[in-house]
Specification:
single chain; 148 residues; HIT family, subunit A; 5-stranded antiparallel sheet; 33% helix; globular; binds guanosine-5'-monophosphate
């Protein structure tokens, strides 16, 4: 995928946003959706996407990227708490040369534990029951922290 490629309405995240494909949602507001990565690089790997269509950092509107960062900032502490993670990574890839595989901008939040390497990018599909359980735990922590 080239950086200046037109937005593909049929990319996986566009389908998730339309409700054509399921996901484990952990947080949602007017401008963004956060859900579990189906091929997590560590337990608790969450993606934050804008609801408006945008392929990458070059084409996204300022208000949309601000909304994505606001949500990332809002939910990352709860993800860390829910997973008991010592640290976490916030990662965003632009173009296939950089490793981007889904052409709808997204922020990765990847919890990290000392001494444990992250898994391969977008390779091993998680056990769905396990992913659902982790998603529920994270969603509950986010909702508890936001209502505190
Ligand atoms: P990228 O490579 O574009 O930075 O990241 C795309 C991410 O989307 C990868 O981490 C990959 O595991 C995840 N992913 C790919 N397909 C799906 C899907 O159908 N559902 C969910 N929840 N995540 C997906």
């Amino acid at each position: 995928m080239h950086l200046d490629e037109a937005y593909d309405d049929n990319n996986i995240f566009a389908k998730i946003l339309r409700g054509d494909l399921p996901c484990f949602t952990v947080y949602e507001d007017e401008q963004t959706l956060a859900f579990m990565d189906i091929m997590p690089q560590s337990p608790g790997h969450v993606l934050v996407i804008p609801k408006n269509p945008s392929t990458n950092m070059l084409t996204i509107a300022e208000e949309d990227v601000v909304a994505v960062m606001r949500t990332t900032h809002k939910i990352a502490p709860s993800i860390r708490k829910a997973m008991g993670a010592e640290g976490f990574m916030v990662v965003q890839l632009n173009g296939s040369e950089a490793g981007q595989t889904v052409p709808h901008l997204h922020m990765h939040i990847v919890p990290r534990q000392g001494g444990i390497d992250i898994g391969f990018h977008a390779r091993d599909v998680a056990d769905m029951d396990e992913l659902a359980a982790i998603g529920e735990k994270i969603a509950a922590q986010i909702s508890a922290d936001l209502s505190a």
